[in-house]
Fold each of these.
Amino acid sequence: MLLNTLGKVHDDKTIDVLAELYKRPDINDDLKTKILKTIPGIDKEKGYDVYLNLLTGSPALKAQYNYDTFEPLEDSLDYVVANYKRIIPLINNDRYRKSLLPVFQRMAEEKHGRYIDFVTKNFAGITAHANSDVDRYLKPNDSTSTEMYMSVYYYLSLMQTIKGQPVTAAFTNKLIRKEDMSMLLPTAAITRIANHLPIDQRVINRLLDSVANRYNIMEALSKEKQLERVPLKYKTQAAFAKLCLYQSVSTSDDDDMLPEQLTLLGTVTDKGKLFYVFKYKLNYGDEESTYYRGICGPFITGSAKLDFTSYRAFYEEVKAGLTWQQQAKEMIPELKKQNDEALANRVGE
């Protein structure tokens, strides 16, 4: 609470007071991470240098979580570029690595591509521990396996953006050979697809047979113009519409639940375009099930094109007194509005 107050109400001595507080041996490391986070927000010009001096010039923190420690770097990527040589040695610390890697991931995914060349040039240093980390992650009964999960995930994310790196093939192959859905197999497969690395069709089929992974695998294959690897049964309009609705519901922040008994009711048309209509239910714990209707579209009759720009799906609870056709017609304007907003957001990225 005090740190939050100092972050909002402060004077030109506040940073010095916090720096001295940080150095005190009786201050625990979890609190020190919050001190580090607070300092740059008080005065960016002075605060960032004090922050980095404390971070690199003091004993490594043993806090349970270090997200706060590196949040200032995520907020000032130009500062990371300017001070990379001082920052990159921190990657050697196991406790720091899983919180520092997201900084470089954010640089790689910056929407204007301003840092792509920088991350590419320094990729070997950023991923210096990739193979040892994935080995620890995959090692049975290793007490550090769970801790390695996020690091391995961030390596994969970086490899999807910065393609063609020497480390990628061997790194992802270790995860593919494990063939364990719970051990980042889907993400490893997507990474290999993005890098045009060979992947057994048997693995692709297994991932596609999982509705939880199907959309992301199909999207990855579509991006790399490899949709021919997807069985036809998953590429029909009806199957794809059902998948898009499933994906929309299951990834919704509102429900975060999986639709059950998702069933095609039929289609409706609007201005020559086709919309697929479904019903499903959600179970809210011990409460009674809630029934929904959802639509997906628009589709052009007879077209084989699959659009991954957005889910293009809308859903709401079943309305008493309305047939599914009537309710679907009522939902179409809301779906169109939602589709337009999704397209505008992509154009603005």
Amino acid sequence: MEYGSMGTKIARFLDRADLTTDINGWINDTRYAIAVEALAAGREFAYLYTEATALTSAGSAVYALPDDYLGHLDLMCGVKKLAHVGAREFDDLKYHAYAGSATGVSIADGVFLPTTNAADLATTGEPDYYCDRGMEFELYPEPNGEYTLTIKYYAFPSAFSASDDEDYLMKFHPDAVVFGAVIRGAMFLDDQAKLAIFMPMYEKEMGKIVRKEKQKETTDMPIRMKTYKDYTLLEFKKKFRVV
């Protein structure tokens, strides 16, 4: 359903023809919210997938995520996929004490306490790991020069304004967008009766989206024949009756 037609339908449900600007905003807000909810539920909207590149610089380990960032899949350095680690594990890579190290303050024979200066402990070179830091990510090792980073991520849906605008969500799940926008309008108008009607309808449509996208992901999965590598030695012997 195109943007203009959707706005007309929402206005009719709200019994208001004087809220065109507000309705346009509610449509876009609903599209954003559905994308967030679907990804949070583990569904992957392929139409939101995009890529962005950036160049590292020597001595800089922290970089900003794209402005339209919603959630990401992979971070590449050249052709190498970087390992995504949690904050604690990432910090352990930078601040750690280990036997035989000459870094830090010696507290026992062969045991060193790390200093609190990150520059003393962090190594430099081509990055292998990264960690999320809010709307930024940090690389380790710290880049020692210029490397090409490619982030593969999901982007927020771009805002629509033209009457013939339409995206995947509006084409294949139009009722979810319509009902979600009506709910926002009902909240704005403090119309409890319409909220009671359209809230269950919106939740039902969201359930349809999750089920449909899950089915689509399952259908699109490639078929792979199992080999002996998929079994432990015990399982292999039992399955093929090998003594």
